User: Fold this.
Amino acid sequence: MPDWELVCGLEVHAHLKTRTKMFCRCELEYGGAENTHTCPVCLAHPGALPVPNARAIELTILLGLALDCEIAKRAIFARKNYFYPDLPKGYQISQYEAPLCGPGRFLLPTEDGDREIGIVRAHLEEDAAKTVHAGGATGRSVGADYSLVDFNRGGTPLLEIVSAPDLRSADEAMSYLRLLRQTIRELDVSDADMEKGTLRADVNVSVRRAGEEGFRPRWEIKNMNSFRYIGRAIEAAFRQQVEAHESGEEVAQSTYDYDPDTDRLTVHRSKEEADDYRYFPEPDLVPVEPSAELVERLRGQVPEQPADRIRRLTEELGFAAADELVSTGNESKAEALAAEGLDWKTAAAVAMNRGDFLPENASVLARIVEANVTREALDEAFTAAAEGPIEADAYLSRTAVGDEDTLAPVIDAVIAANPEQVETYRGGKEGVLGFFVGAVMRETEGKADPKVVNQLLREKLKG
Ligand SMILES: [Zn+2]
Assistant:
């Protein structure tokens, strides 16, 4: 399918890190007992009136500034009308025609320089409550015995960041999402944790012929909360749409569900039931008019962006490693080790492969890594380093066996015992090297120096 191009945009939703809800003073608590954080406002009792959360407005502007957005002089809350049991008002308060943050852009670093991803808008709304379907096999409403609603989440401030349809591959969409998540986290705007549900994404996918202007109908995949499935869903949507276009089938604009078991998308909501939310300005709230002073004060709080640091670290590490290190939030660990004298490449590799450690242990850990201790000793050191202060002496004495004369016979034996894998390796599948390294490490009870083992194996396997 070389002449088809993917057209993808993401709508990213993040729970804001405020102490209280968007329009009432109920406290936000992840994992709190059901229906313990509610009040007349978030339960929609008659006559209860919303009061906007000033901190949520500030956090939204802060993120907007980081995304180079125009900040509205006058933003308007709007009612988005629809019925659902977890939405007791019968409408959600959102922003429609006048969002807080207007057009902006996100410069995504790539192997070949920056790609500009347009930001259409970033607006503020409230989340719905959470419905739990019980008794069914699938956890969905169909087939469930009964459903329960937990109103703790109802009214949580929710930031929605809408990108332009500028993403051209599943990989690019994932890098954008990863880096946007890191940007959100560093601004302390949200935990942005998919597992906890504080970060979700709607994915819009269409395809077109290379060079074609304009857009074909798109599929929307709503409420995705797994990075892996987002990537797979985008690829599946691309394949299915190209197949449909090529066989002359109609591709209608609809909402789709992704099924990881079949790796296919199925229609969730058809065109005939298309959304009609009858938006209108929320009569219970005045427009939000952020002062120039507030916007300037917040602009001063935007730190150096992770994208900038990827560009800088690319010189030390190459793009792929710099991108991975920064986007996964492991950079500060690497920085701590590099500050203690480890070269950046080693520091980055250690930071990516090891868990968190207490900052006070960075200096001892750097020494242990350089001393070439056994893998076992290294594992123990890093496990202990997350708990409390560690002593270097306990680990430094346990150096790895890097002596070629000792390792050569072990390696020869492993090679002799696995002729099939040797053939596979010589056939061009270099990934099999890991199998041999693993075998040698087992034979030496983890005491061999993996660097030397790797090097010797490569030499001997050349044949
Ligand atoms: Zn409340």
